[in-house]
């Protein structure tokens, strides 16, 4: 192993380290400069593509050898790793979805045949929430976890967080990946971590108030729960700005990149709002916003292309979209070895700009406006594409409306449910409904029924909120 690269954990703790070593990563355990955690973030695009291809070649050969799931899948399609000679050849491999993993785990419980080493020997265990059926299980090795910590450290450093800050983690820490990785990266960076765990919201806010002002601080949360904490603070007579949060890092659903939600959070907390996007299946942040992008409207996110290949596909045909156009993301995680993700259909809708250079100095391309929505949530109403984030922009821009909303679907019909602010009289609900209906019509040409509900009617969540419900 080259002495040029220093890892968080030694090879003796990890075991034989897999995959090519990237000398430009240098000391992965600390920042390369006052601006960048890792100088890979500023490499020329051509060099980043070389890193992608080097990592891809190893990953495919390793996965074919060690993962029964992928070997049988690729053999059934009569394709082998050696057929992928360039990045452009990646499309020769079949796409995999969460349903493919679900079927495999049902047929070969509990972990299926995708893991490349015995699951019980791997460091981390995760599962999905299981709200719609049996949870899907994932595992990752210590090396996978360390790679994720590196990516999260890069992201948090890009936000502007520095060693010595305090991180407030408004998260219950259940067995899905959630903010566990952010928590680990914050510790590794030399920050203090404060976990909420099972504390009720108001007790948590009291804890934050007790610590306010004693160190630069950031809040890690879903956008929905960051808003709920604003509500809770006001119910307690606390000015949220007095809690001393300098920065928010939000994940799990669109937030920082939705202008109306960003404005609501930044004005409520008096703090900059940053975005991160990842998934259990791929591990580690795929996207993150930097300090320069946090000043933009809308916020865009950098794509960590040295660790991920992100293909954008047409949601109907799953064929590649023309360069510069938006599509749903199909992701290959280049340095996740315990349970690989090769051409995994993530389903988030992106538009990637490979030409514009961010003023922060990073050469990593930009996902314009971040993740605009998920394919699972996309509605086609009379031929018009509608994502919940579009409705969210209207809801959170109109005076008199609260922040919680749902889209109630009944067959081909969609109704919008949204709360009024607590001080709004019920007699004014119909006028609020009319204004929201008109605003959505301007954005979509659609006239959708709207129902205004009393404040506090819709459920709150510490994790992802359910925006699509059956009528």
Key terms:
alpha/beta, Rossmann fold, 471 residues, four-stranded mixed sheet, 12 helices, GMP Synthetase, Chain A, domain 3, nine-stranded mixed sheet
Characterise the protein shown here.
Helix 8 runs parallel beside helix 9. The chain is 29% helix and 19% strand. It is built from 12 helices and 20 strands. The strands form 5 sheets. A 9-stranded mixed β-sheet has the order 4-3-5-6-7-8-9-14-13. Strands 19-18-17-20 form a 4-stranded mixed β-sheet. It has helices spanning 11-14, 45-66, 68-76, 98-107, 142-159, 180-189, 201-211, 223-235, 259-269, 291-294, 388-395, 429-444, and strands at 124-127, 137-140, 166-169, 192-195, 217-221, 247-250, 272-277, 287-288, 301-303, 308-313, 327-333, 344-350, 352-353, 366-367, 379-381, 384-386, 401-410, 413-420, 450-453, 468-470. The protein is of the alpha/beta class. The chain has 2 domains: 1-377, Rossmann fold; 379-470, ANL, C-terminal domain (GMP Synthetase, Chain A, domain 3, 2-Layer Sandwich), CATH 3.30.300. The termini are far apart. The model has no long low-confidence stretch (mean pLDDT 92).
């Amino acid at each position: 192993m080259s002495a040029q690269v220093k890892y968080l954990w030694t090879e003796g703790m990890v075991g034989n380290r897999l995959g090519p070593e990237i000398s430009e990563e240098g000391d992965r355990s600390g920042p390369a400069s006052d601006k960048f955690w890792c100088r890979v973030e500023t490499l020329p695009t051509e060099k980043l593509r070389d890193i992608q291809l080097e990592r891809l070649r190893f990953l495919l050969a390793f996965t074919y050898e060690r993962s029964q799931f992928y070997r049988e899948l690729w053999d059934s399609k009569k394709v082998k790793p050696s057929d992928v000679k360039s990045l452009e050849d990646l499309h020769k491999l079949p796409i995999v979805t969460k349903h493919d993993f679900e079927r495999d785990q049902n047929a070969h419980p509990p972990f299926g045949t995708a893991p490349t080493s015995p699951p019980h020997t791997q460091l981390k265990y995760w599962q999905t929430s299981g709200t719609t059926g049996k949870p899907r299980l994932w595992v990752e090795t210590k090396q996978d976890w360390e790679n994720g910590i590196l990516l999260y450290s890069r992201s948090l450093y890009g936000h502007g967080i520095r060693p010595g800050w305090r991180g407030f983690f408004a998260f219950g820490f259940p067995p899905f990946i959630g903010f566990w990785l952010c928590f680990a990266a914050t510790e590794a960076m030399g920050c203090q971590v404060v976990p909420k765990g099972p504390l009720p919201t108001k007790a948590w806010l009291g804890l934050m108030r007790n610590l306010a002002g004693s160190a630069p601080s950031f809040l890690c949360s879903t956008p929905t729960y960051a808003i709920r904490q604003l509500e809770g603070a006001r119910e307690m007579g606390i000015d949220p700005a007095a809690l001393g949060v300098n920065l928010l890092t939000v994940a799990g659903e669109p937030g920082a990149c939705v202008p109306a939600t960003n404005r609501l959070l930044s004005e409520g907390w008096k703090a900059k709002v940053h975005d991160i996007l990842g998934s259990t299946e791929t591990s580690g942040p795929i996207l993150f916003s930097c300090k320069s992008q946090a000043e933009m409207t809308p916020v865009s996110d950098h794509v960590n292309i040295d660790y991920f290949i992100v293909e954008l596909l047409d949601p109907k045909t799953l064929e590649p979209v023309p360069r510069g156009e938006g599509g749903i993301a199909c992701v290959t995680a280049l340095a996740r070895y315990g349970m690989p993700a090769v051409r995994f259909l993530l389903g988030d809708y992106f538009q990637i700009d490979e030409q514009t250079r961010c003023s922060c100095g990073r050469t990593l391309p930009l996902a314009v406006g971040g993740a605009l929505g998920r394919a699972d949530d996309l509605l086609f109403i009379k031929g018009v594409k509608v994502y919940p984030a579009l409705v969210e922009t209207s809801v959170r821009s109109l005076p008199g409306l609260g922040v919680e909303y749902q889209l109630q679907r009944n067959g081909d019909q969609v109704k919008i449910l949204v709360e009024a602010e607590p001080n709004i009289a019920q007699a004014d609900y119909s006028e609020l409904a009319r204004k929201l209906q008109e605003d959505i019509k301007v954005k979509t040409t659609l006239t959708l029924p709207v129902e205004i509900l009393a404040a506090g009617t819709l459920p709150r969540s510490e994790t992802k909120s359910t925006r699509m419900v059956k009528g």
